[in-house]
């Protein structure tokens, strides 16, 4: 095995370890915490009733003022 | 795992009274803002700017550096005032949602995310090329795989950004500072203060035609690559929400940043003009490194190679930070699914946004290699530049509107832009000229990108606009104009 191929393999292994750690941590945090403790927004979830959100619908004037 | 659904039963959940949403941590100082802004940009001094020499000659590149430098000085000054009043992650996106409206804000947010993600991909691609060069310099005949190292660079920097903004930007400060110092060392190493010693500027002094081989149209064509000297400095606004004092840190860090870049641009042009023939300089991949090689000093060669490497890493690192903040900000205002607006309970970073953008950056970084199409890298970079230009063309009119909505004396500003409205109008005019210059070189790419943003806007209006609450997204501590 050449030096270059060892370095290439090492780069792939380290990348895979980091990817696994990131995915594991994202899943772990999502499981251990309620979504409302994670989401940074004034309101928790999307309002799923389009009618209720009607005032925000686009008008012909961009800013509505 | 509880996720925010896009359809199904109407389960509206709002924050309960007394509940404090997790927030990004306020830990940054002017030093970090400087590191973010200059870190993203400085790689342009080490590679990229020199293509302006091919278009317009040595003087064409110099005029482009000044002209585009003026454009970016306007951007930094405008950014400093608006960001000191609206210190929110998302930068120009947050400005747009307060001053114009959701559709403009969505477009600006998308410009920012794409500009930084594509620049990050290009940096990772270039980094793998530099490592191959380093390998060959050490005498090795074996080739390192560009796939492995481009992927590793993105993964490692994403991990760093995931773990915390303070460490990520502290690293940027160190490596960006080192890269900047290598440019100064090169200037002193070739006795730049005394051109007669090792610089060859006689041709440029002798005749104007030597410096302007294609006349003034060449100068206009050079503008698109003159942007490389400063492209990305506007990204300082993205970190405003994480500053201990945004009204102080953003203006100081950004102003110091543009001054650093103007000095670096001047030194870079001067040293390269004196050491490299313009025909070669115009097509060189790593001009400063090549200038060091011409100097014949082994120390300078090593320093400039490290400088180029560090500048590339700093740029990719800053791009991950900025792209994730733009994506996160759009998400928390419901422009995108709320799932992305999560903040890590321990590291206080927008961790899902950081991770989500990783495969996209890797795809753009590896595509030119996988398809064996090196020109695709130029296309990726062009898309990044054009997205940046679209942001700049918004910033001038946006600032005029900002001053109209909140006139002087009505709100507290950490920095006041002098000579208003001259800088805003200048920015609009200069952006128009650079757009024209870019159209000359990349007309098809420009039209393709505009078509993409048009389609994205249609998607937003049809699918996401209904979720946007105008009142809830007005988050700045400013008097609300009528309509909110």
TrEMBL record, chain A:
Membrane-spanning segments = 6-23
> Which UniProt keywords are listed?
Membrane, Transmembrane, Transmembrane helix
Q: Which domain of life is it from?
A: Bacteria
User: What is the name attached to this protein's record?
Assistant: Uncharacterized protein
TrEMBL record, chain B:
Checking InterPro entries in the record gives: AA-permease/SLC12A_dom (IPR004841), APC_superfamily (IPR050367)
Q: Which UniProt keywords apply?
A: Membrane, Transmembrane, Transmembrane helix
Taxonomic lineage from the root: Bacteria, Bacillati, Actinomycetota, Actinomycetes, Pseudonocardiales
One Pfam family recorded for the sequence: AA_permease
The protein's name: Putative transporter R00093
- Residue ranges annotated for the Amino acid permease/ SLC12A domain, each copy included: 39-445
List all membrane-crossing ranges. Answer: 33-52, 58-78, 99-119, 144-162, 169-193, 213-231, 252-278, 298-320, 354-371, 377-395, 415-436, 442-461
Q: Does the keyword Iron-sulfur apply?
A: no
